[in-house]
Design goal:
Blueprint lengths: L1 H4 L9 E2 L5 H5 L5 E7 L4 H16 L7 E7 L6 H6 L7 E5 L10 E2 L7 H13 L17 H10 L4 E7 L5 H8 L3 E2 L1 E7 L3 H7 L6 E5 L5 E3 L7 H9 L5 E2 L8 H4 L17 H15 L5 E3 H17 L4 H16 L4 E3 H8 L29 H18 L7 H12 L4 H14 L6 H19 L24 E3 L5 E3 L1 H11 L12
Parallel strand pairs: 1-3, 2-3, 6-8
Antiparallel strand pairs: 2-4, 4-5, 6-9, 7-11, 9-10, 12-13, 14-15
The protein binds flavin-adenine dinucleotide.
Flavin-adenine dinucleotide (FAD) binds next to helix 15, helix 17 and helix 18.
Length: 516
């Protein structure tokens, strides 16, 4: 189908338009829509597509106010749609106001920049051209004044008001306003440096800077490492009382003990626990694999590779390592093209009673505990195990950069119970895992793909309100990992990220609390 042949997939957070859905999406939408009309054979479109995907990731939080879509005009079945919107060249980007009529052909972006920042600014400019009706989910974007602030708490039942002081040409205030639109208990307004009474009252000398303003006129400066959009948005989304719309307010860990049948185990959110790694092995090998009574062909090769990387790089206790090496050598000796799960299970349970070898039974989640029994746990453990494996392979000098990622990819493909996850992961791997050519780039590849998944899932039903999906590590966990480019855009400080990952997942930093 055209959706598969086109430049975008369902996991790109871009609405894929078809003749069937185009009307329901573009006509009378409560959100403004930005649509890229492209041809999959056009070189400029292919070159532009990663920018558009990055843009979708960058303004994901703005969706209720403005959403991105795309359509492949090269696909025969889409020709009528593209002709109808008067598309003559590719790529064309058009903006559709909220509540556009059926006869609207949108407004083309003329000479648009081929970078995320320029496009994001253009989208804000277009949003501001809305005359009534304004997209209902879009907060006000115009600068505020002393008079509006004076009345703010009389007309709004909101705990926090964030004021971003900036120059007229700056977009940060509007960007942060939109970044927070899906969060309750907070409003963001921009204040221009020319708004003298407020600037003087708060004693503002730096532009941009962000202040929290409270009823009665109290205010405090928002503390951030760098005065830039990402840092403001991250800090504001995490203020006490600020919650994602439609999510239950985070309850205290104390009350949480009632939601799962186990007692809550106190833990440090910025550490890795051996209990999670061992629980993951138990669940993976004794529960997930048990769904396959016979393991053969590709699946058998996949199991062999998985156990082999575990035997080499799992940062486990000696008894666990002995069991993994025993299972590995047993598997390597199986020359038939299939094994029964029963036989493998006897090895895992050490029926032969080889000395000092065991894989602990059962799960005991610690860093991967969830506030509800259906949240976190096993998938959290799977990520943690594979990050630890890429890190151990890097410090232990594997000779094959993609050894761990290859084993992970085929394990996920053959066995991971979440089939949609497996499909998304396979898409990412197919797209870029071939670029991994060193052991350290394997560590970084997994880190950056995990962050993509975090971006896609932020706000999803599977997100635990107590453990919001963030671009990890947070500025608190690793201040040096975060920096900005000259133009203020967030940039990961790669020379700091790698050592951070190496240390975070190193065997000497793994905590052994809650083990038997
Ligand atoms: P997780 O994302 O599971 O992360 C676990 C821990 O790893 C975090 O608590 C943090 O300490 C650390 N961490 C976070 N980000 C990074 C990073 N970038 N690098 C290193 N460490 C990090 N769920 C879906 O709903 N849809 C999907 O398509 C989907 N695909 C998945 C694909 C794979 C391969 C896996 C293993 C899981 C997938 N999941 C998917 C599940 C989802 O990613 C989470 O694992 C799950 O929602 C639990 O989230 P969590 O809060 O425990 O954090």
């Amino acid at each position: 189908s055209s959706a598969e042949a086109g430049l975008y997939t369902a996991s790109d957070q871009i609405v894929l338009l078809t003749p069937e859905n185009v009307e329901s999406i573009l006509v009378n939408s409560t959100a403004a829509m930005v649509v890229e009309f492209y041809a999959s054979w056009c070189g400029h479109c292919i070159a532009f597509s990663p920018v558009y995907v990055s843009l979708a990731r960058d303004i994901k939080e703005w969706k209720p106010a403005v959403n991105l879509a795309a359509i492949d005009c090269a696909a025969e079945e889409n020709r009528r749609v593209c002709t109808g919107y008067k598309i003559r060249g590719y790529p064309t980007i058009k903006f559709f106001h909220a509540y556009s009529k059926a006869d609207s052909t949108g407004q083309a972006f003329k000479d648009f920049s081929r970078n995320v920042r320029g496009l994001r600014h253009r989208i804000i400019d277009k949003l501001e051209t809305h005359v009534e009706p304004w997209p209902p989910a879009c907060p006000p974007l115009e600068p505020t004044s002393q008079a509006e602030i004076d009345n703010f708490f009389e007309t709004n039942n909101i705990q926090h008001l964030a004021l971003i002081f900036e120059e007229a040409t700056s977009y940060i205030g509007r960007e942060v306003t939109l970044d927070l639109l899906q969060f309750e208990n907070i409003a963001v307004r921009r204040v221009l440096n020319t708004e003298e009474s407020l600037v003087t009252k708060l004693g503002v000398t730096e532009f941009p800077s962000c202040y929290l303003y409270y009823p009665g006129g109290n205010f405090t400066r928002l503390r951030v490492n760098i005065e830039a959009r990402t840092f403001y948005s991250y800090a504001l989304q995490r203020l006490p009382g600020v919650v994602r719309s439609g999510k239950p307010p985070p309850v205290s860990l104390h009350i949480l003990t009632n939601n799962t049948d186990e007692p809550w185990r106190q833990f440090n959110k910025s550490r890795v626990y051996m209990a999670d790694l061992e629980s993951t092995l138990h669940y993976s090998l004794r529960v997930e694999l048990a769904a396959h009574t016979v393991i053969k062909g590709d699946a058998l090769t996949s199991l062999k590779n998985y156990i082999s990387v575990l035997a080499k790089y799992f940062p486990g206790r000696p008894v666990v390592m002995n069991l993994l090496r025993y299972a590995d050598s047993w598997l390597q000796k199986q020359t038939a093209d299939q094994i029964s799960y029963e036989a493998f299970r006897d090895i895992l349970d050490n029926k032969a009673q080889i000395p000092d070898a065991a894989l602990p039974e059962g799960v005991r989640w610690v860093g991967c505990q969830g506030s509800q029994p259906h949240l976190r746990r096993y998938p959290c453990g799977v990520w943690t195990v594979f990050h630890a494996l890429t890190v151990q392979a890097n410090s232990g000098g594997s000779s094959a950069p993609r050894e761990v990622l290859g084993a992970m990819r085929s394990y996920v493909h053959n066995f991971f119970g979440c089939r949609a996850c497996a499909e998304h992961f396979e898409n990412m791997a197919r797209e870029s895992v071939a670029e991994v050519d060193t052991l350290s780039s394997a560590v970084l590849w997994l880190w950056s793909r995990h962050n993509r998944v975090n971006n896609r899932l932020a706000g999803a039903l599977s997100e635990d309100p107590l453990f919001p999906k963030i671009q990890w590590p947070s500025p608190e966990m690793c201040p040096a990992c975060h920096t900005v480019k000259d133009n203020g855009e967030h940039r990961w400080n790669m020379p700091q990220v790698l050592p951070f990952l190496m240390s975070h997942f190193s065997s000497s930093s793994i905590l052994t609390d809650y083990l038997d």
